[in-house]
Amino acid sequence: MSRFSRMGNDLYSGARSFDIVGRRRFWYSLSAVLMIISLVGLVGRGLNFGIEFSGGSELRVSGVSTAQMEDYEQTADDALEAVDPGGTTTITRIGDDTVRVQTGELDNTEAETARADLAEAFGVDTSAVTSSFVGPSWGETVTQRAVIALAVFLALVTLVLTFYFHTWKMAVAALVALVHDVLFTVGIYALVGIEVSPASVIGFLTILGYSIYDTIVVFDKVRENTDHAFDTKRQTYAEAANQAVNQTLVRSINTSVVALLPVAVILVVGVTLIGPGTLVDLSWALFIGIAVGTFSSIFIATPLLVQLREGELVVRRHDAQVTRRRERREERASTHADDELLEGEDAEGALVGAPAGAQEDATPSGAGAATAVRGEQAQGRQLHPYAQRGPRNQPKRKRRGR
After folding, report:
1. What 3-state class would DSSP assign to 141?
2. Are strands 129-134 and 56-62 parallel, antiparallel or unpaired?
3. Between the CA of residue 388 and those of 367, 371, 393, what are the distances in Å?
4. Are 300 and 31 in contact (CB under 8 A)?
5. Mean pLDDT: which of 9-18, 45-54, 279-288 is highest?
6. What's the gap between Cα 260 and its chain centre?
7. What angle, rounded to 10 degrees, do the helices at 198-232 and 237-269 form?
8. Cα separation of 200 and 177, whole Å?
9. What is the number of alpha carbons within 13 Å of residue 53 lying toward its C-beta?
10. Taking the CA of residue 378 as centre, how many other CA atoms within 13 Å lie in the half-sphere pointing to its CB?
11. CB atoms within 10 A of CB 68
12. Measured between alpha carbons, how far apart are the two ends of the chain, in Å?
């Protein structure tokens, strides 16, 4: 842990740096692979909508014994075969002794028959089997409200970011990261076959807020560093933005880990102990969305912002000034190094070409060397005649009488 903290300090101070912005093509390629995986799930398999969106009947069998739970899927499927032959049936386990069966729409007679058959198959009383019908209109209403909420959210985010950062390009980069996160999360739902419920839709909307929060934190540091770079002319726009990403890298990772830990615990407990339900549906969306949101805030949003702003005239002029200043400093440093090298060569050549006695005199030692050095230092200026006469011209001290 101390090494991770030390790395965070090095990244913030600039002692260590990862070229994240400079390698943006690699991150774009990785993001493209993620998007392809998402599209494969969406187009190839499609979303597994829950009963709230597709409509149908739901039956729950409570108080099932442990022995009956060993093969509950086949038992429930055989019991419903006579009532709904060839129908689409989803059978899941909830907790330790409850089985949930979701099937197509059943009328009252078919529902009562299904209850009796399930009770007989699992060896429970008929009262332990509940039946409910869910119409698809409720799911459609939830979907419409979610789409409206998403549109309003994106519009407000665009306005706020444009006015806060004084450029619409930051808003565009943030929105691209948002779409990236939602599309990947929905694609994973389709690819893995996770059921989409109203709780999942709530989770999709929740990850938008987390993703935009992390992106704004990084962008705020980018604005601070780039403003300083414009004033000092020591860094290009891309270098200042890359430094901002490095300075917020450890913070983003720590925040994501802290957010993912409780979600992961809820997800594991829900899958292993509680079973399918609102908590599991919400946890899946949050876990996938937070993880991919951290990736997009660091590796997608800021590199895209730099690419969008590099074409601006102000940024091009600034980068050109920084480049010219660096070239002039390098030329001065190179000229100074060449002068020192020539002076050293001249001094060495003078000593080599002189007679042996002269070489010995040219290298004084002890008190004579110090006197020679002081004499050489004094050659650069003319002393006043009064000072040249030395101690003879000093005032004499009168001796006091005893």
Report:
1. helix
2. antiparallel
3. 21, 16, 10
4. yes
5. 279-288
6. 14
7. 160
8. 20
9. 14
10. 11
11. 18
12. 81
**HEC sequence for 83-97:** CCCCCCCEEEEECCC
Query: pLDDT value at position 303?
Result: 93
Tell me the residue type at 176: V
Phi first, then psi: give them for residue 15, nearest 5 degrees.
Answer: -65, -25
pLDDT at 305: 92
| Residue 368 confidence (pLDDT) above 60 | no
| pTM, 2 dp | 0.70
387: amino acid identity, one letter: A
Cβ–Cβ < 8 Å for 30, 180: no
Give yes or no for residue 280 having a pLDDT over 50: yes
Would you call 377 helix, strand, or coil by DSSP? helix
Phi, psi of 93 (to 5 degrees): -105, 135
| Phi, psi for 219 (deg, rounded to 5) | -65, -35
The model's confidence at residue 402, banded by pLDDT at 50, 70 and 90, is very low
Which pLDDT score is estimated for 374? 47
What does the pLDDT average to over 179-200? 85
Of residues 330, 312, 329, the one with CA closest to residue 237? 312
CB neighbour list of residue 283: distance below 8 Å, 6 or more residues apart:
203, 263, 266, 267, 270
The encoded tokens of residue 1 equal: 């842990």
